[in-house]
Amino acid sequence: MSEAGPQRRPRNRKQLIVAAASRQFERKGFHDASIADIAAEVGITGPALYRHFRNKHELLVAAVGLEIEQLEQAYGGGEPLAGLLDTAAQTLLRSGRASSVWQRSNVFLDAEQREELSKRYLAALDPLRAALVSARPALGEVEAEALTWGVHAVLSSARAYERAKLDRDRARQLMVEVALRVAEIDDLLPDGATGPIPPAVVEGLSPASRREAALSAAVRLFAERGFQAVGMDDIGAASGISGPTLYHHFPGKSAILAHVILRCLDALYFDLAAVLANNDDPAEALELALASYVRINVAQGDALAALTSEIVNVPEDERAQIRRVQNDYVNEWAVLLTASRAELSPAESDALARSAQTVINTMRHHLPVPKGAMRDPLRRIGRAVLGIPERVDVADLIV
Asked: Any idea where the domains of the chain sit in the sequence?
């Protein structure tokens, strides 16, 4: 019996390392993903990985670069809009592809690297914008930019279609249908929208409760810096609370994060329970649920964003509870959507419900209108993703 010969190192090992790092960063967050875990996923040792990358920060830059490369491949075909969307959906639905490293981890990049990669990310969307304008030449520049981000947000919500366990061909078809509906929205923006608007600096009123002051400060700091870069001392200083007093209210930073996320879900479910109790028309109830989600997103978007961007930092037992509540909330939307659109299967409705919520979360950052004017365009985008007609009489019931 002959002995096995020496194993050859694969020529694409560096690419395999970057892909594994992307998945680990997405799954665990930048700080909690370890070199050892990344190396183990590739089947090598830590020292072998260090022959390719000096440290985890270099891996993060490469992982973001890989995500942008995939966008360049997805949108770079130069096809008419429908064909481009089909190609992009196939690319972005590939299994094992990490899709939110930039969104979740760009705060950990150096300012110069962040700016350079941001420019490259924006440039990757240029072919999509060009195809959209070619399909709709009457669009103004600002409207075209907003719709480009809307279509991109749909295609970036590929995880929604994967979690619904749809057949990949059907997921691709459904994603393209949704993207085209978003691309076809007329008069998305109110008259006078001229371009990006810097976020308004509103001091607001401070909570009288020290506990609430700490939660408010934590939400703001997590959004600005990322969970891992914020310490309990930072939260205490921002809320004017001493360390011992802060620990009296919360045993640690992850407890604050878990509380913030669960409270957002409670708020969503509180509204939804009232909607279900007071309506017997599934289409009407879904419209009200959408309006509620938009209202809470506009008012408390940084807190709600923690559900997707920071949940990896919640302890596993609490994370499982949060996921159950989140899935139950999505399922309520899916049931209402299936009742409203009988042609959809439960899995398809689940995918569309998840996609709609993800797209709304994303588009809050890309609408060139003041905060007070965001609700209507976000509701219209949500309707387009769900494929439901506009019901102005219902949408205006939630203020």
From this structure: 13-183, 251-395
